[in-house]
Amino acid sequence: MELAEFRLALDSWLDENEHRLTPDRAAATLDEQMAHLATVKRLTYEAGFMRWGWPPRVGGLGGSTLLRAYLGEALTARDLVEPGIYSMTEVLAPTMIDYATPELAAAMVPRLLRGDETWCQGFSEPGTGSNLASLSCRATRTAGGWQVTGQKVWTSLAQFAQRCVLLTRTGAPDSAHKGITALFVDMESPGITVRPIETMHGAAEFSEVFFDDVDVPFDRTLGEEGQGWAVAMDLLPYERSTALWHRAAFLHRRLARLLRAAPPGALDPAAVGEVAQLLYALRARSRNTQRRLAGGERLGPETSIDKVLVATAEQAVFDLVADGLSTDILIEDDPISERWRREFLYSRAATIYGGTAEIQRNIIARRLLDLGPER
Amino acid sequence: MMDPADLILFERSLEHAVATHSGRPLDTALLELGWDHALALDPQTAVATLFRLQGSEHASSSSLDHVLLHHLELKGSPVTGVVLPTLGQWAPPGELEGDELVVRGLGGAALQDQREALVVARNGGAVIAAVVPTAGLALRPIHGMDPELGLREVTGRLRHGSAARQELPPSVWSSSVALCQLAVGHELVGASRTMLELARQHALERTQFDQIIGKFQAVRHRLAETLVAIEAADAMLGAAWEDGSPTTAAVAKALAGRAARTAARHCQQVLAGIGFTTEHEFHRYVRRVLVLDALFGASRSLTKDLGVELLTSQRLPALVPL
């Protein structure tokens, strides 16, 4: 299946099925969004579109990863999914395909693609934000498997998740990135407690997750013992490729909407032009990355440039929203204004989550500009 | 398109020519290595490679004239120069007023040695190309911000009966402008990359507080910021070639101009004292990019124009499709 053919088939299917795929109201709660996402994933899976771009051994139909990029873009451009929760698949499924045993990947990945399950990513800890390699959530070998004790935080969608890709400390406490092991954990396991955290934008999008002597079978190890850092590092470029293309489509749609919604004279033309240019540049950069991924290239630290661009563009778009729709954002309580307000507030986190703006610039300085280690 | 082996050979010979020549000698070298031929065969490779190198090596040539002549399909003779729009503008440099051709534009260093000059001019709603004797134009050598560029301010009032002229298809001027914007965009990106490299080298050599200044996060982040701006502009230039529309080219030119200003600001700060002297070559790049930013539309005005267009149409074109 070529991209052009896929695009044509998907677009016409979306035209016909838009009524089944459209969410009920503009300012849906996170619970409603999650339920709706499951419906969209199931329908697109059953129609085959969700399976293209994934290998047959995990229930896919093969073909280029560009097909996945386009599917997410098309769903986002038509406002059928919220890209943040949709794109979790793009981050977690490739990790399973690369690092889980073939049997486990074959059993689990289709559930994620079809929308049967939600997965989360247990990386950050209370004492471990930007310095991921210092994590301390411990997994100890026992006769029957791993036993996990510790705490995670900022775990997106943990309260909805059936599974978690979890980074644990299996080496000595000071073993840094060498002593980390990745596990695939059932969230229903005894000993796991999830406490959702309400955020500034009014959704409990992420949680604290507590692990008290949680048993995890050895065959749920992703990669080898001590290979967890590689798992995490290989996951991040996915977060900065396909998922990012979807995010760019979201920003494009919202800026286009703003152009129609803002009262005459409310927006400064120079600011509008600059934000639009930023978005186009983001798309140009990200498109090159999608093509490299599709061509089988291994993505690496250069995707930090894409990440800086998307975070910058997201805040720029919503700064413009705050200018153009200032009254709506500040005092209106109708669902449309509430949505603008929520998205504006969420955009404040764009330079924090998934590696802060500062960490991205550190990576660029060290790995792309070859300026040597920071210390 | 060139095949990969030809491409490598072409790039190597261009690299050598641009690294060792500038101005008229570079024009001669380019003629000898067949750059004009490459321009006809594969415009993107010819333009992107040469102008990137010109930017990074701080070289100049009259290649922009050739790009315009080629695109307008006015082969002309080797003695034909081109009058470019004046700085900050992308409107044709000429206008027909009654029976006079009024010229107000810019010329390269080579223009004064050429017998004839091509002037694109507005004639009411139409656009014409006129070839006029260079002797009929006033050429003021420009010292200005970047004396090494050797630009000439071109003015004149000629009776247009004396000019050989032809009407151009309506869209051909805007596509010519787009092409020149891409060429200048690549030159800006090339110059920005050199500024970044000069600052990077300095950050690795200069020691303060017993460590190289490249260890300081404030310095590292300025350089990282510069690379992000350059890569964004470079990606957009690639997208503009693929797309071919004047809108996309203008976006790419604006991003390249802004990236160069970002590079100049951050790299100047990292180079600090030495970068402020004429003993270091950095200042030559700053001068060059300020002028190039204004050539065929400055980033500031291109950006504002785009904003006005978007607000008027209330539409955001879906440029750069997957």
Written description of the protein model:
The complex is a heterodimer of chains A (375) and B (322). In chain A, 50% of the residues lie in helices and 14% in strands. Chain A is of the alpha+beta class and 375 residues long. Chain A has a 4-stranded mixed β-sheet with strand order 1-4-5-8. A 4-stranded antiparallel β-sheet of chain A has the order 2-3-7-6, with no helix packed on it. In chain A, helix 5 runs antiparallel to helix 7 and helix 8 packs antiparallel against helix 9. Chain A starts with a helix and ends in a 7-residue tail after the last helix. The mean pLDDT of chain A is 95. Chain B has 322 residues and is an alpha+beta fold. In chain B, the strands form 2 sheets. In chain B, strands 1, 2, 3, 4, 5, 6, 7, 8 and 9 form a 9-stranded mixed β-sheet that branches. The interface between A and B is large, with 48 and 43 residues.
Essential attributes:
heterodimer; A: 375 residues; alpha+beta; 4-stranded mixed sheet; 4-stranded antiparallel sheet; 13 helices; 8 strands; 50% helix; B: 322 residues; 9-stranded mixed sheet; two-stranded antiparallel sheet; 11 strands; 55% helix
Task: Describe the structure concisely.
With about 375 residues, chain A is an alpha+beta fold. Chain A contains 13 helices and eight strands.
Oligomer: heterodimer
Structural class of chain A: alpha+beta
- How many distinct beta strands of chain A? 8
- CA(first)-CA(last) distance of chain B: 22 Å
Q: How many H/I helical runs of chain A?
A: 13
Coarse morphology of chain A: globular
Distance between the termini of chain A: 49 Å
What is the H/E string of chain A? HHHHHHEEEEEEEEHHHHHHH
Tell me the strand order in the biggest sheet of chain A.
1-4-5-8
What's the Cα radius of gyration of chain B? 20 Å
Whole-number mean pLDDT of chain A: 95
Query: What structural class results from the helix and strand content of chain B?
Result: alpha+beta
> Strand content of the residues of chain B, in percent?
15-25%
Mean pLDDT of chain B: 94
How much of the polypeptide of chain A forms β-strand, as a percent range? 5-15%
Q: What best-fitting shape of chain B do the alpha-carbon axes yield?
A: globular
Largest sheet of chain A: 4 strands, mixed
Helix residue percentage of chain A:
40-55%
E-strand count of chain B: 11
Query: Helix-strand pattern of chain B, N to C?
Result: HHHHHEEEEEEEEEHEEHHHH
Give the helix level of chain B as a range of percent: 40-55%
